[in-house]
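Quick question, first post here. What does this chain look like in 3D?
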Amino acid sequence: MSGVDAFGIQLQRSDMATPSATFTAIANVTNLGGPEIERETYDVTAHDSTDGWREFVGGLKDGGEVSVEVNYDPRDHDTLVADFEDDAPRDYKMVFPTQAGGGNWAFKAILKGFKQEAPVDDKFTGELTFKVSGKPTITPGA
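> Answer (accepted):
Ran it through. Tokens below.
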């Protein structure tokens, strides 16, 4: 198989209740990207490096960002603006659809940006940007 249909993916937001949190899907997601994991590399090349080739070691890792586009509806999405006021990261899950084998990426994130647009000749849209804090946990699908 050369590709998997992405239809049905969900970004779920935790209510952060203890001892057991409830995750609820963010409504009307039209596009979802990330986490954009990356890591730094440190150049450790020395005058005695083999054959004059640069050498590197792995450094700190970064969970990157998660970007979300929605068909904006203030009744569904304005509750997320409260997350912008939180200094502490919240739990989120990107849940893959069954045709993609299920599974998920769980991560803590801070809502870094939220904007909406209301063009005269098109639908109301919104864009949210989350900064991942710490290591995302990947649960592979079947």
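The first helix runs from residue 74 to 77.
The helical segments are 74-77, 81-85.
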